[in-house]
Write a structure and sequence with these properties.
Elements: E1 10-13, H1 19-29, H2 33-42, H3 45-62, H4 65-88, H5 97-104, H6 130-141, H7 151-161, E2 163-169, E3 172-180, E4 187-195, H8 204-218, E5 223-229, H9 233-241, E6 245-246, E7 274-280
Parallel strand pairs: 4-5
Antiparallel strand pairs: 1-2, 2-3, 3-4, 5-7, 6-7
């Protein structure tokens, strides 16, 4: 198996023609996450009490224990399936297309992220990978003119939708990470980090996060928050390896800073469905 050359990866903003590829990538990364979130919410004490109460009421009406037990659970699952992605935005599998358009607005003017591995690229067969370098140059030189009837709405949507950065290798989108809009100065919020299954455990996710951290640090950002879906142990371990700590934990020799608190995303019955990880730049 040939390992992925990290030096060949281009890290850039998502453009309009990348939207479908990014949507497919996020949908692939969300497989199983929704079901784990729903199971997490259904097993909370208040949720169990509510379901038991509804089942008892239906038992008196339907005279069927099985139906009285199944109907409330089924209705809640359907409700959560519909509302979780739209209400929280952490999954992104059902974000409105207009949000993706806003995220790609003026992407052509944004410089690519600096890939430290590209400087370490080794020659192959006596020649450098010129094809990749030429592709990077073409991306920088290309200027597409997108027409819109309402530029003011698109400007506003671009801020609300945030930014989506992608990792591209040989013209294929292999990873993405979202930087959400934050009104607080000096703060960056990351979510929806997804890497194509074929390229996982190759360092692509780490490369995207670290390069985006470097960019935000240059723009005077002091702290990065990463939202991880509550049942994702892999996501938790990943961010801990990158130096993040769970919000509320005390780092060695540090004290908890209470004046800058990031609220986790909440779902049904106001139960948190994300864990917030913090890193000071």
């Amino acid at each position: 198996m040939v390992r992925l050359d990290l030096g060949s990866i281009v890290l850039r903003r998502m453009r309009l023609d990348d939207i479908e590829a990014v949507k497919g990538l996020i949908k692939e990364g969300c497989e199983g996450t929704e079901n784990r979130l729903i199971l997490h919410l259904l097993t909370r004490p208040m949720a169990l009490l509510m379901l038991a109460t509804l089942s008892s009421i239906l038992r008196c009406i339907l005279h069927s224990f099985i139906m009285a037990l199944v109907i409330p659970v089924f209705l809640v699952i359907v409700y959560l399936k519909i509302t979780i992605p739209r209400s929280t935005g952490i999954l992104g599998s059902r974000r409105p297309y207009w949000d993706y358009v806003g995220s790609s607005y003026q992407a052509e003017k944004e410089a690519d992220l600096d890939n430290p591995y590209s400087r370490l690229a080794k020659p192959v067969g006596g020649k450098f990978k010129a094809g990749q370098q030429e592709k990077v140059k073409r991306h920088k030189k290309e200027k597409r003119k997108e027409e819109t009837d309402d530029m003011e709405d698109l400007d506003e949507r671009s801020w609300v939708a945030g930014e989506v950065w992608i990792a591209e290798s040989d013209g294929e989108v292999i990873g993405c990470v979202s930087k959400e809009a934050v009104s607080r100065p000096g703060v960056t919020r990351l979510c929806r980090l997804v890497v194509q299954s074929w390229y996982r455990k190759e360092g692509v996710g780490r490369l995207m996060v670290q390069c985006l951290e470097n960019r935000e640090k240059q723009k005077s950002s002091k702290r990065v928050y990463a939202h991880v879906p509550y049942p994702s142990r892999i996501g938790e371990a990943f961010f801990r390896k990158l130096g993040y700590r769970l919000q509320g934990e005390v780092a060695d020799g540090d004290e908890i800073i209470n004046h800058d608190h990031e609220e986790p995303r909440k779902g049904w019955l106001a139960y948190p469905i994300t864990k917030v990880f913090v890193k000071d730049l």
